[in-house]
Amino acid sequence: MAVIKANSEDERLLARLMRAEAEEDGEPGMLMVGNVGVNRILGNCLDFKNIRSVNDMIFQSPGGFEAPQKGYFYQRARDKDIRLARRVIGGERRWPASNALWFFRPEGSCPATWYNQQNTGRYKAHCFFTPSGEDCPNVF
After folding, report:
1. Spatial distance between the Cα atoms of 27 and 140, rounded to a whole number of angstroms
2. Is 112 exposed, middle or buried (0-12, 13-18, 19+ CB in 10 A)?
């Protein structure tokens, strides 16, 4: 059962985002980016109030993802990318992004906090950050 409302166009859009942001991190990394996106839709908190759809989440500005804002959101969604997006929409979660709303790629090690959010871990090049349950109970 889907955890967010999504049609086939939403699946393709999310798949494109996952590919653009984390293709170099393989399927696990792409799933984690998808987790962050779904959490932003579910959260309705902090920087992500009134983000109700995949389209809202992907094209949020300011505060959204780099790929659509910096011009590397151009590749089409492949079948395997769409399958990964469906898994995330269906509720699959991957640590350390299970409850994360943010991730970024630092030059060195991951900071303990980022904009007052706790570091939940690193996967390859990306560090993931989770809000408190009090700030965003809908992502837990």
Report:
1. 23
2. exposed
